[in-house]
Write a structure and sequence with these properties.
The protein is an alpha/beta fold. The protein is built from 16 helices and 14 strands. Helix content is 28%, strand content 13%.
């Protein structure tokens, strides 16, 4: 008994110390703790504060044409925030790219952070996501830049994709806006503080993740460290055949839905019951869902089923199997490396195809110019909606951006042509919107570090796209070389950029900064599990909820438990082959195509 008492006191003491150091022992049963890595949290450099050398208002007259390459109209005014005063600069990069740069007056520690936006953007999101334990981000010590990507169409509103009728706006949205915003922000920093930045970072999720990948591939010298979450890098097919498939797979000819919430709960329970222990940890999550081969016999109704909702009919199982599989043609050709993953079934309800776009001003937010001291932290939870779902509204809004000339059939799932011909139509603008170039050697040569992450339960952007891209980079550059500058973290149970029933709260900025500034690659991410729905709608970068526009991070919420997430593929229990798919050849080295407007039309340079 004495020995047991001493062991109990020691465990309590270790947990206390672990909590203080950010090292958590209670996330998994102690019998399995040996399977997790040491939870080491490296910190970035302690850089001295640099103060401004000119008045904020003087930046309004700054000429940026030499730095940016085109005219930039600026306005500047001081604002007060709970993190101290900022010089708030807004402007327009010709012809119509709105930007915002927030420059700390008292706390700048020589770093620039540019943030991405989600969906089709059309708003400025100057908040900092996935940095709830990052001291410089929490203290307002970054110069923060953001852009609306060249248009102001409110996400989720009718006409949000009308900008695609303007070929210049297509280019700005695809890749030009973030690059020129970075150049402008760096010039403003030099003018305001009398010296250049020491380190530059980019952070974004969803389309913000695509923007992050685009920066690493097209403009490898813009940033030293890039955090890319759930990147919509395979933009063309993801936003055409995939969204159409996820709606069509669950819709009867009369428009009614096949799978409902009760069946999804039963399906999820069966998947967890049979696959939870494949990773050796009983926690209700699948560390690597690819190892779980869902058997219809787990869930199919029998003649003696007591409750219809406790099982799936053959029709319902067919719908589920299609969602697991991802889009295919009648010959069985796959158009993605994988569909929705086992373990994600509870997310199929919130993002179930056909739910349409969110109400205006709710889930995906809207652009807000902040010229006063009003720095909102988003609406209360009851006002926040679900993430932009891959239903009718999403398919219709994406079609004009995906296709050079969209047809009515491209915007509706009913009778959608899941054919190789349609695939080739969908990739006509691959060179413009996709960010799948695997030749990251210029970025690595610059000293850049890239941290990718994706939730295994994402039902907006297929998580296997990130896995396929990572594997393609390793194939082309070699795993040893890739290990020097790229990490991919796949988070079990996490939905699109957050939420879900897994460990969805984590800080990517602190480990990224330590990697860039000290050369210490992240051995793991420390992720926290939140109460149900606490993480939904709370974050920027494409997650649900109206974006927080303050140029600093919010502290993490208290977590129910935490665990260390290993970099992929170290989580795999065994090598797992990827299904053959049409489009795999697009994940390859490719000289980025440059576009221009000629005679009013989009053309390649």
């Amino acid at each position: 008994m004495a020995a047991k008492s001493r062991s109990t006191r020691l465990l309590r003491w270790l947990r206390f110390i672990g909590s203080a150091l950010g090292i958590v022992l209670c996330a998994v049963p102690m019998s399995h703790a040996r399977q997790l890595p040491e939870a080491r949290v490296d910190l970035p450099m302690d850089l001295p504060v640099v103060r401004p050398v000119v008045d904020c208002a003087s930046l309004a007259g700054l000429a940026l044409r030499d730095a940016v390459g085109v005219d930039v109209a600026l306005a500047a005014a001081p604002v007060s925030t709970p993190r101290g005063p900022f010089c708030h600069v807004t402007g327009v990069i010709a012809p119509a790219i709105h930007l915002e740069v927030d420059l700390p007056v008292e706390h700048w520690t020589q770093r620039l952070l540019e943030t991405g936006c989600g969906g089709l953007c059309g708003m400025i999101n100057a908040s900092i996501g996935n940095a709830g334990t990052c001291a410089p981000a929490l203290n307002g010590a970054f110069a923060v830049a953001a852009t609306d990507m060249g248009h102001e169409a409110q996400m989720g509103a009718p006409g949000e994709s009308n900008f695609a009728a303007d070929p210049q706006k297509r280019i700005d949205f695809a890749y030009r806006a973030n690059h020129l915003t970075a150049l402008a922000a760096k010039a403003l920093i030099r003018a305001y503080y009398g010296q250049p930045h020491r380190f530059a970072y980019f952070s974004g999720c969803s389309d913000g993740g695509r923007e992050a990948m685009m920066e690493a591939q097209r403009f490898p010298e813009d940033f030293d460290g890039i955090s890319a979450g759930a990147p919509a890098m395979y933009f063309q097919v993801q936003n055409s055949l995939n969204h159409a498939w996820t709606q069509a797979a669950n819709t009867r000819a009369d428009g009614s839905k096949i799978l409902q919430g009760a069946q999804l709960q039963s399906l999820h329970a069966a998947v967890i019951r049979h696959c939870d222990l494949l990773d050796g940890i009983k926690d209700g999550l699948l560390t690597d869902p690819r190892a779980c081969k869902v058997d219809p016999q787990w869930v199919l109704c029998s003649a003696h089923s007591a409750a219809a909702n406790a099982c799936l009919t053959p029709e319902q199982w067919t719908a589920a199997s299609k969602l697991y599989m991802g889009p295919t043609d009648t010959a069985g050709h796959h158009f993605l490396p994988g569909g929705w993953q086992p373990g994600s079934e509870l997310q199929w309800g919130g993002g179930m195809p056909g739910s349409g776009p969110p109400p205006q001003g709710s889930a995906t937010g809207h652009r807000r110019d902040r010229t006063t001291t009003d720095l909102p932290h988003g609406p209360p939870p009851q006002q926040q909606g679900p993430a932009h779902s891959p239903g009718t509204g999403m398919l219709a809004s994406m079609a004009p951006v995906v296709f050079p000339v969209a047809t009515p059939a491209d915007a509706t799932a009913a009778n959608y042509p899941f054919t190789v011909e349609q695939f080739h139509r969908a990739i006509q603008l691959h060179g413009l919107n996709d960010a799948t170039d695997t030749d990251l050697r210029p970025f690595a040569a610059h000293g850049g570090k890239l941290l990718m992450y994706h939730g295994w339960s994402d039902t907006s952007i297929a998580p296997m796209i990130s896995v396929a891209y990572f594997a393609a980079v390793q194939r082309d550059l070699g795993s040893d070389r890739v290990d020097q500058f790229l990490r991919l973290f796949m988070l079990p149970g996490m939905a699109h950029c957050g939420g879900g029933d897994g460990f969805q709260q984590f800080d990517t900025l602190t480990p990224l900064m330590a990697w860039v500034e000290h050369g210490r690659a992240p051995a793991s991410l420390i992720a926290g599990k939140l109460p149900p729905f606490a993480g939904m709608g709370a974050g920027p970068d494409g997650r649900g909820g109206r974006p927080q526009t303050a140029p600093y991070a919010r502290p993490d919420q208290p977590a129910l438990a935490t665990r260390a997430i290993l970099p992929f593929p170290h989580t795999a229990s065994q090598p797992l082959a990827m299904q053959p798919w049409i489009g795999a050849e697009l994940l390859a080295p490719a000289a980025p195509l440059r576009y221009r407007v000629e005679d009013g039309k989009l053309t390649q340079k």
